[in-house]
Amino acid sequence: MDRHEHDEQWIKEQMNLIRPKWRVRATELYKEKFTSVYAIDKDESLSRREANTLLRSLVDKNIKASI
């Protein structure tokens, strides 16, 4: 999966909000979501949106767990 040029910086920023020990798993989940949605719909835009939504959710959960 290639990151879209418009997403690359945003993804890096979001990943930096996740605890280092969880970043590898977050990256795996992001790739899995993108790939699974793309395999069904063949729509890169939808795949990016779904994967980015998942990433936002992971960041929110990680922040809440830190409080």
What general form does the structure show? Answer: elongated
Major sheet attributes: none
Number of strands: 0
The averaged pLDDT comes out at 92
How many helices? The count is: 3
Low-pLDDT parts are none
Rg, nearest Å: 12 Å
Overall structural domain count: 1
Commentary on this structure:
With 67 residues, this protein is an all-alpha fold. The protein contains three helices and no strands. The chain has helices at 8-15, 20-41, 44-66. The chain has one domain.
Compile the SSE list and pairings.
Elements: H1 8-15, H2 20-41, H3 44-66
Descriptive labels:
mainly alpha; 67 residues; 79% helix
Short description:
The chain is mostly helical and 67 residues long. The chain has helices at residues 8-15, 20-41, 44-66.
